[in-house]
Write a structure and sequence with these properties.
Blueprint lengths: L3 E5 L2 E5 L23 H8 L5 H12 L11 H6 L18 E7 L12 E7 L5 E6 L5 H16 L5 E4 L3 H4 L2 H6 L3 E4 L9 H21 L6 H12 L12 H6 L14 E5 L11 E8 L7 E5 L5 E4 L2 E4 L4 H6 L4 H4 L40 H7 L118 H12 L6 H4 L3 H16 L3 E5 L9 E9 L5 E10 L20 H14 L3 E6 L13 E2 L13 E5 L9 H14 L4 E2 L6 E6 L2 E8 L2 E6 L2 H14 L2 E6 L2 E2 L2 E6 L2 E5 L1 H10 L28 H14 L7 H7 L8 H16 L4 E5 L6 E8 L10 E8 L2 E9 L7 H25 L8 E5 L2 H8 L16 H7 L3 E5 L16 H10 L2 E2 L6
Parallel strand pairs: 3-6, 6-7, 28-31, 31-32
Antiparallel strand pairs: 1-2, 3-4, 4-5, 8-9, 8-12, 9-10, 10-11, 13-18, 14-15, 16-22, 16-23, 17-18, 19-20, 20-21, 21-22, 24-25, 25-26, 26-27, 27-33, 28-29, 29-30
GO molecular function: nucleic acid binding
Organism: Acer negundo
Protein name: Integrase catalytic domain-containing protein
Length: 1026
Amino acid sequence: MIGLGKQRDGLYYLVALTTEKSKLTLPVNRPACNLTISSTDLWHRRLGHASPPRLSFIAKNFLNFSIQSNNACHICPLAKQSRLPFSPSVISSIKPLELIHCDIWGRYCHPSLSGAYYFLTIVDDFTHFTWIFLMRHKDEAKSILKRFFSFVFTQFEVHIKAFRSDNGGEFISLRSFFQDNGIVFQHSCVYTPQQNGVVERKHRHILQVARALKFQAHLPTQFWGECALTAVHIINRLPSPVLSFKTPFELLYSKTPSFSYLRVFGCLAYATNVHKSHKFDRRSIPSIFVSYPIGQKAYKLFDLSTKKIFTSRDVKFYEDFFPYASVKSNLSSHHESGPIPCITNDPSSSFYPIPNTSQTQTPPIPVTSSPSPVVPPASVSSSLSGFPSPHRSSPPKSQSAPSPEPSPTLSQSSSVSPSPSPSASPEISPSPLTFPSPPSPDPSPDPMPLRRSSRQAGPLAKLNDYVCSAVYSDQSLSLLPGPTKGTRYPLADHVSYHRYHPAYRSFVAQLSSVAEPRSYSEAVAHPEWREAMRSELQALQANGTWSLTSLLAGKKPIGCRWVYKIKLRSDGTIERYKARLVAKGFTQLEGVNYQDTFSPTAKIVSVRCLLTLAAARGWPLHQMDVNNAFLHGDLAEEIYMSPPPGLRRQGEEDMVGRLHKSLYGLKQASRQWFAKFSEAISSAGFVQSRADYSLFTRTQGKSFTALLIYVDDILITVNDPVSIVATKKFLHSHFHLKDLGKLKYFLGIEIYASKKGIFISQRKYALEIIKDAGLLGAAPVDTPMERGLKLSDKSDLLKNSSQYRRLVGRLIYLTVSRPDITYAVHVLSRFMHQPRKLHMEAALRVVRYLKSAPGQGLFFSSNSDFKLRAYCDSDWAGCPLTRRSTTGYCVFLGPSLISWRLKRQKTVSLSSAEAEYRAMTGACCELTWLRHLLRDLGLSHHDPALLYCDNKAALHIAANLVFHERTRHIEMDCHYIRDKIQDGSVITRYVSSTHQLADILTKPLGKEIFVHMIHKLGVHDIHSPT
């Protein structure tokens, strides 16, 4: 036997053996292993890389060997290394506002009452005073911070020396601002929020207090913004052990704060009604106290009946009663996160509390109920039944007015805009004010019935100084702002006409001032429109358009209606009032009273090409209008029509009109008219373009004439002034036309020509969109879509989807001259079938962007080399619904943008290279068609077109005629670009993503990149006031 071992803790421990005879110790009094210099490493590995303290303890007590301290293990750092401890900051400020900490909280899943999803938090390092600003979008932080720096310097005469935040893009974008103002920018390391710990801990403190306020008042989630604002207001006035039990307010303003004006958040409050309309109107407004307004000696209240925020200084509080406490029990969690429940009142059970029986009884004053109650009114009335009435005879306990201390926070634009509220007291005094109780009214008999005045009621005189805007009536769309009291963001700050010469300014003014009736009843009230309708009927009868007859058995007549249009002269004055009779062709039956309907119209790309050619070569552009164009077509089908409004005579009630000539509105009318026009213009030597059938050109020696027709509007440009006279003379000989002179207004597009080039915009149309959306006084935004936004179909459905479809449909036509909104409108148009509230909010953001530059448009330069170049891009799997990619490309003729397109690809791409390759094919097809069109316009391109792409893999696929496993599944038509590269029609070039102009068509960009891109596209705003 060599030795004995005992098992303990999974190991065998050897003990020494002795003999009684020899008493000799066997040489086995150490472990059975042969210990060498590597014993430490060996046992370190056996024990699973135990830590040095544990290994030292085992070696000393059980293994009897010494630990070598210089042994290093390269496995332990890989398996165990953690982040180093964060030592306290050694940098501390010595006076207020030297160092500020900043961060953004959000995005929260529910919008606040003001529509905010974020709030910006600013904490002073020395005083711990906190400011927060509610924001709808993160990009508002940049402007808020700039205003905050100005506020600090003005109020405290202090320059902020250091700014600490995380690595948010909204803060990084201010780096140049910090450098210009000498501010040290300290930002935390990536994934290290501990380095911005001051504001992170402040967020936790704010949310703790805000949650307590919300749970105390049982308010819906939409009040989270007011909870946060009130929480910060309170926190700034609470003593802190970190500050030696002083308050942040005291350290910042060197005075102790007042607490006498504080009230319980969310409690019931009655505000004096200062807008009484008659003697028996209610004298107070039942409300909920929600916050302390900035810069006013008042309280911010939430009207329970109108669900509007307002401010008032004449308020009586009942701090032990919370109106939403009774509503809370009747609402599920689904309702809590949805629209704010409306507390309504039934006349049979008044909202006003029942007074004590020992006091003078006063009849309850009924409150107007909301049109869409969520909870039964009885639930609220019963919950208030034991509460003292504000109209009791005994005076209530006096209550103090709001604090007179200076406003410690800035007025943020994203906070709730109050409804018209009582004016604040002009003098702010530190002494509390007493709110006197209104006297109890004397009982009076039933009033006599009053005679209603027959005098016409006009608008109030006080509204003469305001611009009233139309607002959507759907109460469910709370995100639609209503008319503002005064205009904080006037439209004059974003559109001006000082760059135009006086004649064109007159034209624009006339264009903006005219209004057209929308129905027969409106038009018949004006003599000029009655005369226009009479002239139209005479022209139709003289043309033999119909003949009155009895309706044959089995036949069904179609209806008709009037459409009104004001025609303008070239100087902007009204030329005539045009009334057009239009048939209701949607009631026609295919195969019965019509066959083919297709008729070509000018493509808008052709219009831009024509304008670019005229601008570069200095050719004049003229416009003509065909009178009653559709009446020239002959009908082969048997069609009957009901008499138009205003033509039905007595004794002819059963008569209908048998149509012999084509009429506006008929499905075949445009086809018949175009066939007539094509036949006539071809007889004059004009050749119809194969690239655009609405384009006709004629070359006679050195004379070149191009004519483009869009229904009954004709554009003409020539290189010889004599030829334009001959062309007009020929057209007059075949059709009755009106010569509108030089081109200024075409298809809703305003055209302004100068020596530098031609500028087109849809200013009037954009202003109409802004006005119809009720956003004339709204705050503009810098980009049409929030950066990184991905719209999905997860939010609540709109109750009135027609408003969304109408708005997006109008925005689609606005993209004719606005490539800057093309991507946003493309994404919005994906949800036309089932639009949701988030989609409507995104659409209204586009309108707010239009407010920033309604006159923005395209400029076609007079300096052009007529070289074709295109940029193509794709966002791989960018659609969150289908995971398909989006193709975007833009094509330039010289420096002028003539074509752009954005389209979701037909199938899912397996890689970004495949998506970019498909986008290259789409751009190549457009380049091929444009070469044909420009050749018909007299521009033959012998040089290949340049196609720029920012994906090298896609460029290699296009250049190499090989098929491998990553490309063999791509459809054969996508390889069309390879043939064009081979025959020399197209040359591909690599461009970095920074200079990829098509990037604006595939994703929403930030402000700085977005502005840079639209300038590169040739988008300008000559209406800008600056």
